[in-house]
Amino acid sequence: MTYSLSKKFLAATSALLLLSMSAVPAIAAADNSDAVSPLSAGNGLSEAAKQYLLRYPSRSGVDGKTAREDTAAVFIPFGATPEGGWPVVVWAHGTVGVANHCAPSLNPRSDRDKQYLNTWLSLGYAVVAPDYAGLGSSGLHHYLNARGEAWSVLDSVRAALKQFPLKNELILVGQSQGAHAAFASAGYQPHYAPELNVRATVLTGTPYFEKGTTAADILPPAGGKAPSGGDPKIPYIFYIYLSAADSNPQLNPADYFQDKALPLLKEASNLCITPLNDEVMNAGLNAANALKPGVDSLLNASVGAMLYPTLKIDHPVFIGIGSADINVPTA
Fold first, then answer.
1. Is pTM beyond 0.90 here?
2. What is the three-class DSSP state of 72?
3. What are phi and psi of 215, to 5 degrees?
4. Which one, 43, 166, 206, 290, has least CB within 10 Å?
5. Alpha-carbon span 320 to 85, nearest angstrom
6. Cβ atoms of 176 and 95 closer than 8 Å
7. Which backbone phi and psi does 281 adopt, to 5 degrees?
8. What's the number of CA atoms in the CB half-sphere (13 Å) around residue 61?
9. C-alpha atoms less than 13 angstroms from C-alpha of 244 in its C-beta half-sphere
10. What does the pLDDT average to over 204-232?
11. Where does the signal peptide begin and end (predicted)?
12. Which helix (H) or strand (E) holds 178?
C-alpha cells in the first residue's frame, strides 16, 4: 500500500514534544572515524547534502548481553548547520527480510520511503536510519524481537550524536515492522538510553501482539474470506520461525509447516521480502496449505519477545491506521 504525506502534516507532527526517564546506559558508541564511510550514491536520498554508512557498537537485545556491531545510514540536510545541530528523525524501516544483504543501507530505498524521508530532510531534519541487528551486520536478524530492535535503534542514535552535528532532539518514526521497532524503542528508551531526548513517536501500520496471539490473528481472512491463492502474510510466519530456530536449532520445521511450504521456508533465510513474497504468491501458499496446527505453539513460544515493554509512553505518540491495510488490519 503506498501513500504520500504532505509537508504540512510532517511539520505539524514534528512539533510534538517532551521527554522520558532514567536508568542504566548501554554500550557507548566509540568516537572514531573508522566507524563512518560514504553511503553508496545509489542507496541515498536526493534531499541529503551528505550521506553516510555508520558502523556502531551495540548489545544484542536477543540475549541481552552479547556485544555486536550494527549499521545505520545517516542523512544530513542541505544548508548551514543550525545552532546546536540538526534535529533528528530516527527512521525505523518496515520488513525487508532476515538476511544480512537485505539491509536498507545496502539497497536503493523504495519510492515511497524516498518521498517520505526526503520531505523530512527538506524540512531541516537529519535522518538516522538503523538497519537493525543482523541486517547489514553479523548473524540472522530476529524478526519482530522488540528488545533486539529497540537496543539497535537506540544505540544507532547514540553513535550518530557522537559522529555528526546533530541535536539531541529526536522523533522516532516507523512504518510496519518499523512502527513495532519505534514503539519498542520509545518503551525501552527511559531505562536503556535515558540520555536521549525523544520528543515524539510517529507510527503507521503498527503491529500489536499479546500473549495467546495465534496464526489466525496474524493471518485473518481478508473481507471475511480465506485466500484461495497466495497470502502475502505467509513470509512473516516464515521469518518468525527462522528467528525462533536461530535461538533453538532443535526446532523441526515439519512440525509447523506442510510439505508444500518447506522449500520456500528454507529459501526465506536468504530471500528478502519482495522476492520471497513473489515466490509465496506464485506457489499459492496460504494458511490452509502451508501451516500445521503446531504453528500456534511456535507463536505462543515466540510472542514474548515481540511484546512491547510498556504501553505507557511519556511523550506524544501519533498512530496512523490504514483502513485498507491487509497486513496490519484495523481492530
1. no
2. strand
3. -60, -35
4. 43
5. 29
6. yes
7. -70, -40
8. 30
9. 22
10. 80
11. 1-28
12. helix 177-192
Sign of torsion over alpha carbons 259, 224, 274, 283: positive
Average pLDDT over residues 251-275: 98
Q: pLDDT tens-digit profile of 167-217? A: 999 999 999 999 999 999 999 999 999 999 999 999 999 999 988 888 878
Please say whether the beta carbons of 201 and 313 come within 8 A. Answer: yes
- Give 249-257 contacts, CB < 8 A, sequence gap 24+: 251/298, 255/292, 255/294, 256/291, 256/292, 256/294, 256/295, 256/297, 256/298, 257/290, 257/291, 257/292, 257/295
Contacts of residue 20, Cβ cutoff 8 Å, sequence gap at least 6? 186, 189, 190, 194, 198, 313, 314, 315
Q: How confident is the model at residue 27 (pLDDT cuts 50, 70, 90)?
A: very low
pLDDT digits (tens, 9 = 90+) for 114-159: 999 999 999 999 999 999 999 999 999 999 999 999 999 999 999 9
First-last CA distance in the chain: 18
**List of residues 6+ apart from 251 with CB closer than 8 A:** 241, 244, 245, 298
Q: Which amino acid is at 241?
A: Y
Residue with cell 525462533: 244
